[in-house]
Amino acid sequence: MKEMTFEEAMTELEKTVNELEVEKLTLDESVKKFEKGMELSKHCTELLEKAEKSISILIEQSNGEVSEQPFEISTEE
Fold it and tell me: Could you tell me if 10 and 45 are in contact, meaning their C-beta atoms sit under 8 angstroms apart?
């Protein structure tokens, strides 16, 4: 799964969720699909976290210059 892109993983996750919702599966098949979905979800989350770490925001300073600042996610609500 390491080689799977975010888009590929999301497509596969959507397919897996649809199969769980629509198909008549045995309990064993449902559990396997659920486990696959959880792995895909974790992979997507890891890729998003990696992307967030590499994002920078350009901020214009008061003197008109632009500086690069690391992207920070606020966890406050």
Answer: no
